[in-house]
Automatic annotation (TrEMBL):
It comes from the Bacteria. Pfam families: EmrE. This is Multidrug resistance efflux transporter family protein. The chain crosses the membrane at residues 31-50, 70-90, 96-116, 136-152, 158-177, 198-217, 229-249, 261-283, 289-308. Signal peptide: none annotated. It comes from Paenibacillus elgii. Keywords: Membrane, Transmembrane, Transmembrane helix.
């Protein structure tokens, strides 16, 4: 349960992204700076943490081994994740982006065959190609159904253009984030702690953010002080706190695709936290009864997802335990 609780904590801080991005968009800020400033601000924040823990040298040692791999998956995991989310904020309200983002629960599940996982056999732990957990996928679809119920009435009022420009980029981000995270976990193999890995991926994605910043300077000019401050808050709450919590939770269950999918499913709580934030700070209208029903389905689906994953893990361990008892 500990990884699940940490995952929920990360969802709370991730929700700041949707609320603050919506606020920046309403105040006239460009999505370009909303995206780039978050990661530019994250570097000194994370660098201070890693330096204080005296863990910077091991990180640089790891990055020098495969710089191209770090550059590629850092850009995929952070660049192709956050830039599309901020782009979508320019065309759709925060609640729709937060809701659509939950498809990452299914995206993460579908990525399982691309990775190896540790399984228990009569001969002991062995590495095997990951399989899509069918029961977990069904629970993920239940979560998605709840999200659809939450958003269905609002979506009717959106134009097709807003819907596509607000949904398609988020779908891209939903695959990029878990893919980049898992590939870097696979590369590091536990040699780096969560702070080191997040800092490494952030630094590896810097070329992407520098290019995006130069594009922003040439098209929209410098960001306002208000947008810069809000981007700093996103960097602190979502970029550092939420990302570190989420990566910590995924590190705790790495090698087990079912439990990893359960941790990723906790991110469905972002919808509830983002909705609460928009109600409190942006004065959006109260959700309808159908939307409230959707929220209940989301929470129920998340609980069932975690329950199914733990049950499957127990059933895998029982044959090995019984064999040990006979021996």
């Amino acid at each position: 349960m500990k990884p699940i609780m940490i995952g929920i904590g990360s969802a709370f801080f991730f929700a700041f992204t949707f609320v603050l991005n919506a606020s920046m968009e309403l105040s006239g800020g460009s999505w370009i700076w909303s995206a780039a400033l978050r990661y530019l601000f994250m570097v000194p924040l994370l660098l201070g943490v890693v330096l204080a823990r005296k863990n910077l040298r091991p990180l640089f040692t790891e990055m020098r081994k495969q710089p191209g791999t770090w550059l590629w998956w850092g850009t995929v995991g952070f660049g192709l994740f956050y830039a599309p989310l901020c782009f979508a904020a320019a065309y759709s309200p925060g609640w729709l982006i937060a809701g659509t983002w939950q498809v990452t629960i299914i995206s993460g599940t579908l990525l399982a065959p691309l990775f190896w996982e540790t399984i228990s056999t009569d001969k002991g732990p062995m590495q095997a190609r990951g399989k899509i957990p069918v029961k977990g996928l069904i629970m993920s679809l239940l979560i998605l159904l709840g999200i659809i119920l939450m958003q269905i009435e609002h979506a009717k009022s959106l134009s097709l253009e807003s819907l596509m420009l607000g949904v398609v980029p988020v779908l891209i981000a939903s695959f990029a984030y878990p893919l980049g995270n898992r590939k870097m976990m696979e590369l590091c193999e536990g040699r780096l702690d969560t702070f080191q890995r997040v800092l490494g991926m952030t630094m590896a994605s810097l070329p992407f953010w520098v290019v995006l910043s130069l594009y922003g300077l040439s098209t929209v000019g410098l960001p306002s002080k208000e947008q810069s401050f809000q981007a700093l808050l996103v960097a602190l709450f979502s970029g550092v706190v939420a990302t570190v919590l989420f990566f910590k939770a995924t590190d705790m269950v790495r090698g087990n695709m079912r439990k990893l999918a359960s941790v990723e499913a906790t991110q469905s709580m972002e919808v509830l936290f983002a909705l609460a934030g928009e109600l409190l700070f942006l004065s959006i209208p109260l959700p309808s009864l159908l939307s409230w029903c959707g929220m209940i389905v989301v929470v129920l689906g998340m609980i069932l997802h975690s329950y199914v994953a733990n049950k499957q893990e127990e059933s895998q361990l029982k044959p090995s335990a019984a064999l040990n008892e006979r021996v």
